[in-house]
Structures are given as structure tokens and as C-alpha cells.
Amino acid sequence: MSTTMLSLHALTRRFGGLTAVDAIDLDLAKGELISIIGPNGAGKTTLFNLVTGLDRPDAGTVRFEGLDITGLSPERLAAEGIARTFQLGRVFGNLSVMDNVLIGAHTRLRAVKPAVPVIGPLLELGLALLRPASVKAEEERLREEVKVILARFGERLLPRIDQPAYSLSYANRRRVEIARALALRPRLLLLDEPTAGMNPTETTEMQGLVAELKAEGLTILLIEHKLEMVMRLSDRVIVMDEGKKIAEGPGEAVRGDPKVIEAYLGHGLTTKQESAA
Amino acid sequence: MSSWLDYTINGLIVGNVYALVAVGLALIFGVSRLINFAQGSIYLVGAYIGWVAVVQLHTPLPLTIIVVAVAAALVGLIIERFGLRPLQNSVRIAPLLATIGISFVLDQLVMLTFSPNPRALPSQLPDVRFQIGGGTIGPLDLLIAGVGITSALLLFVFLRYSKLGWAIRATAQDRDAAMQMGVDVNRVNQAVFGIAAALGGVSGLLVGMYYNQIDTAMSLQATLKGVVAEVVGGAGNVPGAVIGSLLLGLVESYGVAVFGTSYRNLFAFLLLVVVLVLRPNGLFASARQAPPEPLTGTFIAPSRPVRIPRWALLVATGIFAILPLLPVSFYVLQTLINAWLLGMLALSLTLVAGTIGQVSLGHAALLAIGAYTSALLSLTFAVPVGLAIIGGGLMSAALGTALISPSFRLRGHYVSIATLAIGEIVSLVILNWESVTRGPIGISGIPPLSLAGYELVSPISIYCFSFIVMVVLALLQGRLLGSHLGRSFRAIRDDDIAARAYGLSLNRYKSLAFIFGGFAAGVSGGIAAHLYSYINHETFNTQQSILALTVVILGGLGNVVGAIVGAVALVGLPEVFRIAAEYRILIYGIVLLLLVRFRPQGLLGTM
Lengths: 277, 607
Known about the structure:
heterodimer; A: 277 residues; 10 strands; globular; B: 607 residues; two-stranded antiparallel ribbon; two-stranded antiparallel sheet; 24 helices
């Protein structure tokens, strides 16, 4: 039996009278890719926020590799190996592509961040100013690694490595976000609509990249609206509507589920049929 | 017991005055998410227009109130139209800085027109006191209460039942949606600024009559009090602002009753800091609100910094280093010494405000901590001056960071308010902690600069000393920016949520930035103490904090070379053009306004 990487139990988040995430259960095995789909406002991004510590659940637990991580801070979870991208694209606008991706490797800095309690931060300041050989070597190694990561995106990012992120196209910013997430060497990767705003060619490219990451054994939780991509990549699909999980299973099974059609696909199918008629 | 009733009445009356300012701030915050730092200046303008009306034109009271309200409203409309509307699509920090610039310009204009000396503003009401219970109440108290309650009622009716009032409430809830529904947002802004200014002006008039005295220092105090009341009530919450104001009035009044007058402001700012830390959304907001909307990298104008070749920097450093050997007057050296001291402060502020995005308005407090520490170390413990200055830097780094740490969980404009309040608290503690700081008398007889036993008294030696210290600090800061810390600081500034998601602890890195910056500012303050030989609690004031901010914006936020260029420009140019001292602050305000409008990235660009 494969090991469980992430396990959500009865996870709930309410905003006033609205239950954005309503008692969600989910088990994600190591190396598995689960897609979460559902109409806008179904609570998918809120669920991501709960898992990554940007928001705290009102009830329920989040376990990561058996460890209870419910309500831990995002910086702590990053150190545990959870990386995410954001739905609306949150690159550091005034930082170069290189620096954006280097921030992704922040939790892996060792030489410059001695794990000494209390005076650790002061040592970090001192080492950053003095920059002994070990610190320089670490920085150099990470810079080389960033170039390798950027090379995964072909010629999209490498030629722009020193450009500030605000000058990039929308699609390239999303790529920078994914590169930044990979630089963390995540054990769990959460992708929030990685292809939003991309044209079909770019989407295919992104789909190829996610497939590669999955083939390399990375555990992935994916929010995506493009069903074609979801069907091809996912081991399992979870459908959310109004905060609840309304279906779960292999892509094809979920696609045929009447509840799903009603909640999510129904509207689209009817219009398609009407236009076909 | 009777005095308690008096203190309660006094607290409520003063609270009513604060409410007039705070309600305006809340209205403006509601529709444009802006804390209007110029509100106190309008209050000042109101007080002086009132003085002109009463003393020169002898208008009867009702007419005085109407004249003040209309004139202040006009000032508000002008500010909105020419100061803020052009900035609608610029970065979030721009309107905040603009209101600071406007407040400088207005305050200075009033000061230049009426002189900084206090004036008496006679109340036009009979001077009688009525007994109620154990306390007394005068006609002016009743007038203030009446004006407060009447304007609250009028405002309520206006917001509730008029079409424009609906539009204002709609805009406050969702600006974009209101625009799409055809609400003319510019008109809403105009209305709000007009109302806020009218209320603020009348408030100034009433306060002037209440204390029978007006002076130009009222402005900053009023802004601070209004902001405190507004934040306590919940930013943008109009009824909350009224309750916050009354609460503030009472807290101050009881505080004064127990501890004495010089503690009045201390209570106000402590209340603010406590509320900001415990309930940043105000006393009446629900404890857990929906997470803030994603905002990406829009706080600071995106720009590419101007690349200055290394040789040019070396040449410039060389020229300034050998300047004392050239035939230049002591006057030039003296001016440049001031520039280097301001440069050190600007280095500190450009790191804190520019690199990590915490726009501090209380930076002069770091100077004060450094200056007092260094002065006391050398005077009381006979520590050599060189070491004492380093001690001042270290104390400023440690204590300054500890004091500012409550603001680390805040964002955007709130950081500015909190640091402003913390700066005021430092100055008030210095004033009141007589056993250590010698209170209002200040510290005199501070030994002159010396190094390894040699006294530095000639302008040339002082010049060289301060220049070398500044260059060393600048080099260190440049090195810091090139390290992973520079990258981390800038990431936190651009998007603190994404930064946290990648393992950057905000407390840790904000602390490190303030420790490094606090050291530079403390050293600057320490050197200044030994140069001036006398310091008191007003030596390092908010004006200097704002001057430093102007320097930093002029040079480009986060830009090390820019901070120094900015300091030389702002200290040097007024000397070159022989601008009289009283016009300088006015010029600084205008420079700030022009920069925000036309070159928000500064001369050398944001780093």
C-alpha cells in the first residue's frame, strides 16, 4: 500500500454565514496527482489556503506525512516541503526572475542560516555581510540550480533571467511561480490554476511539464478548469460545489456523475446541446 | 468626587472635538482606503480662518461657524482635485505621501502668513459656568456638544437618505461595482473631502475657542488624535469613529487626572498601539475577518534603477573625500556635514521603507535613542565618545526594533500610523522619564566628538569623520542588499503573503532590517548629539522623520546611492539658492508632492 502524503479530515472554514469549505475529507498518496474541480466560488482556493497555512480552519485536521499540521504557519509548512502557486499570480514584481526563483529555495539555505536559537537571526545578518566561502558556495550552487529549473521552460524564461518580474507576460509570470515552487524541492506541490490565461499552445506546454513532474514522482494537488488537462493528468478527481465534496473518483467516472453534471458541467452541456441543435 | 464628573465632562467634550476630525478621516478612508494625513492641516486652517473672522471681521458666532465650514470645505475640494485625483491610478503609497506633502505645505503657508507665535482665539460666548451635580459646564461645552451631535445627525441623514449619500456608501463597500453601476466616483470623493474638511475646520475653530489659543503645532496633534480615534473605532467605520473619539477623550482626561498633563498624549498613543496590535480592524470589527485580497507588488512603483558605473561612484567619493583639502569655505563643509548626518538617517529609512516596505514615519525616534544613549554614556559613565556613538547605534538597533516590533503584523498605511505613534511615544517618554533623560531640561554639556583621545573640533576633522562613517554604513548596506537578505527583504515588500508561503518569517526579517537600519540612525543621532552639545526631547521631531522620507523618495526607495544623493540635494540646494529657513519646510513639502506626482520612483529609481 502506498503511503499517504496528505490527509484532510472534516476540514471546514466558514466566513460569516457562508461555509466556504464544508467538512472536506481527502487522502493523497505519495506520487499521486489529484485534481480539484468545481465552479467558481466552490471553495477550492480556500481549501488550498487551509492546507498551506494562509488561513486557519474552523474545524477538522490536516495531516502531512502523518504529522498534524493544522493551523501551522505558512513559513513552517514551507520548511516542511509544501509549495504552492497562486491563482492570481503572486510573483515578486520588482525582483528579477533569478531572485524570484531563489526565494523559492529560501527554506533550503543552510550555510547562511545557522540553526542556533535566539542569536540565529543575528548570525544570519553577520554571515550575509561577511559572506565566508561556504555562504558564497551555497549561493553559487543555488544559482546554477535555478538555471536548471528555468531550462525546463525552454526559452521562455532563460533569456529573461535578469528582467524584473513585473515586465513579464502573464503566462511567464505563472511559469516563474512554478519555477519558484520547484526551487523549494517540494514534497507536496499545490498548483492553483496553472494555465489560467494561457492560450492552447501554452496550455499544452504546461500540461507536458506537470506530466513530467508527476512522472518524476512528485505529489501534486491541482486546481484546474481545463477539463481536458484534468482528465489526462489526474489519478483521481475531486469535485467541489458550495464548499462540499460532491464526487470523487477517476476522471471518467466523475465526468459521468449526474450530480457533477448538474453542479458544474450541466450548464455547459445544455448550452452546447442547444447550440448543436 | 466632583472633579471626576468634571474630568468626564471634559473627556466627552474633547472627544466630541476629536470626533469631528475622526469622522472626516473615516469617511475618506471608507471611499478611498486612504488615511488623510492632511486632515490636521485643514483643522489648523479652520482655526486661523476662525481667528480672522472673529478678531478682524468681528463676525457673529453662527456666521463664523458657517464661514469656517465653507472655507475649509473649499480647501478640502482643492486638495482632492489637485492633490489626490491625479494619483488615482498610481501605487498605493502615493496618495499617503501626497497627503503628508499637502499637510507640510498647508502648515507652512499658515505659519508664514500668521507667524508661528500662538494667538488668542476669543470665544464669542458669555463666560459663565452652570453647576450640574458636582461639576460645572460652560456654554462653550454645550456648543461643542451641540455641534458634534448636530453634525453626526446631519451626516447620518445625508448618508442614509440622500442620493449622494447612497453613492458614498456604495463606493465605500465596493468601489469598482459602484463605478460600474454608474456612480460618479470623482463626485463621491469630492463630496467626502468637502464634508470631511468642513467638519475638520469647524473642529479647529472650536478647539481654538475652547483653549483660547491657536498655534501651528495644532495640526500634527489633531491628525494624530483623529487617526487614533478612527483606528480605535475601526478604519472607515463612521459611527465607530465617533465612539472611538469619545473613548479617546475619556482615556486622556482620566489619564491626565491621575498622572498629569504631560502624559495626555502618551495615553492616546498607547491606546493606539494596543488597539493596532490586538484588534487591527478596530474595536468593533469581528475578530476574524476574511483574508485580505491579494495585492501584488503595487505598493511601490515598479522601475528599473539607474545603473551608476563603479568608477563614477569612486570618483565622486574621492572628490568628496579630498574636498577639505580644496579651497572651500567652512560653510560648505558645515552644510555637507549636515548632509552626511541626514544621509545616514536616509540610509536607515531607505532600507526600512524602501527595501522591506515599512514606511516609517517615526524614524526620528531612532535618532533620539542613539543621541540620548551616546550623550548619557559619555557624560555619566565617561565612555569614550567613539565607543559611546557605537553604543548609541546598538541601543537604537535593539530598543528601536523592540519598540517597533508591535507594528510588524500590520500592513501598508497602518505601519505608517503605528510608527508615527511609536515615534511620539519615544519623545514623550524622553520628556517624562526625568530621572534618566533629565526631562524637559534636556542634556547639555555633551562632550565634543573625539577619537582615540583626540578631540575633533575643526570642521575639517568633523567633516572627514562623518563622511567616513557614512561611506562605511553605505558600503555595508550595499553588501547587505547584495546578499540573500536583500532579496528576502524585497520579496517581503513586494508580496508578504507569497513570501510567507516560501518560508520567509516576517518578524525575523523585519527585525533584521530594523536592527541594521536602527544602527545607522542611532549612529547618526549619536554624532549629532556630540556636535550639538545640547539635546532635548524636541531635537529629533516628526519634521525630521518626514524630511528623511522626502530624501528617500527623492533618491529612489531602497536605493543606497539615491539616499545620499537625496540628502545632499535637500540639504545643499536650499543653501545654494539661499532660501530662508522658514521657507525650507514648504519647499520640502512641494518637492514631495511633485515627486509623488511626476517621478514616484525618485531620481535614481526604486531598487
